[in-house]
Amino acid sequence: SSGALWGGRFSGGPADALTALSRSTHFDWRLADVDLRGSVAHARVLHRAGLLDDDALATMVAALEELRSDVASGAFAPVPDDEDVHSALERGLIERAGADVGGRLRAGRSRNDQIATLIRMYLRDQARALAALALDVVDALVDQASAHPTAPMPGRTHLQHAQPVLLAHHLLAHAWPLLRDVERWVDWDRRAARSPYGSGALAGSSLGLDPAAVAADLGFDGPVENSIDGTASRDVVAEFAFVAAMAGVDLSRLAEDVILWATKEFGFVRLDDAYSTGSSIMPQKKNPDVAELARGKAGRLVGDLTGLLTTLKGLPLAYNRDLQEDKEPVFDQVDTLLVLLPAVSGMVATLTFDTERMAALAPQGFSLATDVAEWLVREGVPFRVAHEVAGACVRACEERGIELWDLSDDDLATISGHLTPGVRSVLTVEGSLASRSAVGGTAPVRVAEQVEAARRRSAEL
Ligand code: ARG
Is the complex ipTM more than 0.90? Predict the structure, then answer.
């Protein structure tokens, strides 16, 4: 009974080792629902082509719907002899509709065009779910940004103090990449919305079935243009996998900031108890496990993408059984992101910032030196000279263990005749922030607009 879909030309059954290797029901069973939806659509085009009479169509559709609810309830499940989800469901159909009617469904259809269609249906559904969860992370970041409209923090490059920025500006810098990941999924969906159904094994069908009708029935924009491409290509799957991997990488960069910020040394942020863990031996510990798992799971999300691309590399046209290996990587990505995204949005939404400490550290490390240089440029000094003068201020302060704003008017004048007391207007964090007021800058007025822009973008997607 094994190999129920292809026994005809074989004199004996498959070796147990082949059956074990070949079997995919333990991972492709999650496609059972889209498989049955596809089968109902296929039954309808068979009927329209005159290959199923009215009674047979009614029997077939009723049996498929019954099977669908039995799959949902768990009353029907694969057995060890079922090779894949398609074989198992054909067995279930024949059990319910009889061999005469049930045995007609496969006409004009191959598992090759079937699986290529189902993976698209499944991933299109999942992309919508994941995009919604990614937007929850975006919204949590935007809410935190709007709750801290003017709080400054040290902005860093090379992880060293660079220039003061608004906490809200920094948080939104994590929101925009995630918004782009969602845009990528939306854009990907246009390419995924082509149905390979009707491509058959590779060459199309001779039975007068209408691929456009099945495509429309299953929510696709239309059929694929080429039956070989439809059955053999998996770039649509790989592109989904890239977006999932990119989202994982974007989450891991946010996570790394949270991990650093939660250290004693930074002391920027306190994690909510509900989103942190303790140590089994050190009673005082509060660990950022959500963020660490986000960082760690980015590795497997990237691994899933590279594994899939490696499987596809060099495969000749058309279908090859290697393509069965396209599913586990993206299923793993889906499962990973479905648990990861809600944990990250919860963690972000419940962060408590020590805004006093962040404000106190914002001007440390001579992070206002660029403001001195740019003030001099506005006074007409060439930037090369301005850079030297501001650098000399830093050197003087370092030697004396003081900050830029501790330099007296005389000190300033001694360093350079250009340094009049007017420079003090930019020697405060507030002055520095307010001066960076071009579009995209960290001035509070611009960041307030940015919060609204991010909110609108999230609501549109
Ligand atoms: N389970 C296969 C897959 O995932 C589909 C079956 C195609 N098998 C075949 N011998 N043509 O790609």
Answer: yes
